[in-house]
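User: My advisor, Dr. K., asked me to get a structural model of this assembly before our group meeting. I'm new to this, so sorry if the format is off. These are the inputs:
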Amino acid sequence: MKTYTYTEKKDTRSGFGAGLTELGRTNPNVVALCADLIGSLKMNDFIAENPERFFQVGIAEANMMGIAAGLTIGGKIPFTGTFANFSTGRVYDQIRQSIAYSGKNVKICASHAGLTLGEDGATHQILEDIGLMKMLPGMTVINTCDYNQTKAATIAIAEHDGPVYLRFGRPKVPVFTPENQTFEIGKGIKLTEGNDVTIVATGHLVWEALEASKELHEKGISAEVINIHTIKPLDEKIILDSVAKTKCIVTAEEHNYLGGLGESVSRTLATHNPAPQEFVATQDTFGESGTPDQLMEKYGLNSKSIVSASEKVLKRK
Amino acid sequence: MSKSQHLEDLVIQVRRDILRMVHKVNSGHPGGSLGCTEFFVALYNEIMEQNDEFNMDGIGEDLFFLSNGHISPVYYSVLARTGYFPVDELNTFRLINSRLQGHPTTHEGLPGIRIASGSLGQGMSVAIGAAQAKKLNNDKHLIYSLHGDGELQEGQNWEAIMYASAKKVDNLIATVDLNGQQIDGSTDDVLDMGDVKSKFEAFGWIVIEIEEGNNLEAILKGMAEAKNKTGQEKPVCVLLKTVMGNGVDFMMHTHAWHGKAPNDEQLAIGLEQNPETLGDY
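Assistant: The format is fine. Below is the predicted structure of the whole assembly, which you can bring to the meeting.
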């Protein structure tokens, strides 16, 4: 069984900052906007190198989305930065009308997604954003798993013509994907081969899925782990091919089970090849204050939960 | 025909278009459309510098953004009659498979329109973004926008109004259609906005007032003044005092025709008051 190791932990939002800085050097049309969270979004280096291409909007996210839409009219490629909660729910109508319906080339970059934001609590921990964004026609939805992948995705979405929601997190998580990877929007990545159960994970849960696969291996269960960094458009082929072999699936995400990756996978299976599925996700609940590890444990979003879900789904085959 | 006669004729013809478009589908917003007819005619024929071919990015030309998208009939009519798309396409307003959606959109590629609007309060932010893109592109042309007065009740406007002065967006002329009416009644009754001029000034804008917002000469003079005030490190606001339903006597000075279509008889009266000038579609 292929195993993954890591030498350091880094935050995915720093991957965004590094990608944006590189774009500042390579793509003169890239501009950035922020709503008073420069440090949190790691935009400092881009701003230092390209002050004229940065727009500090203040605490006014609706205005930021509108300005971003307007900047595209003139050929700019705006990257907006704020927390996931304020990047989606707070400005849904602005994104819907001025960006998605208008087909504007805005990249909505959202940090501090999910429970791992931690101590700030439920007001800041959005667990519905993937659903909100994937329901918008024409919106591409990406949730990256580590520093390197986030950096690669940030650079890749500048080349994609159309609105993109790029979701990443706050805490430092293991860096296990290659440094100089090519990021292909809409293409899942098979991390381990297995015959008994398919585990499809996104974002911070991908590493947890790999940890779970090791534990399952020790129990004599062979898991196929797939990294779905793009939730929309979903790589249906990689999922269906795997489930054709394993006959069951576990989905894992730092999001509500309603509206997230798991639901997209369910639809794919229901329309092509129904199979038992278990959801590792929050169960239609708000979060609360705590450390990221405590929250992932309490809400069942870690490798242990993925192992349990795998054992459960195996019995349903 | 003199140029000013042509503009006068165009105003009458656009009024006819608005009435006929809304009547045909028994839906749409004639009141605000009629109130802004002279403004649109002046804007697209005299005020803005435009390229011959429509391009979404609009480099090297002035751009206009309609924030109060429900007055789409006047927008469509003027766009068609200034050559953006065939005039007879006005026949398809609000019909299935049409490019002329109830509220303007870009998704079917209707030339002249660069952003969807309809859900209110978003247009000033978009106009600011487009103005800043012009600056980044070293394009000296201006951005124009139009907003309803009732629309100013949406909070996003005030985020944008604050931003535009703080960031010295001085290549923007944002016009507010001050007709004092909205769907539920007069703006004073629904939610009194107080002194709009003082509010814009307090937010650091230059304010120009056009008292006769349905008078072509007054509009041209006021907008020329507004243009002269650009480039002074402050955004420019034009308060355009119009009469909702202007040009059709029974539709004037009331909110009743904000979003209601005339019946056959009312259409006939409205058309009689505005005899055909440049030819119906």
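One thing worth pointing out at the meeting: DSSP finds ten helices and seven strands in chain B.

User: Perfect, thanks a lot.
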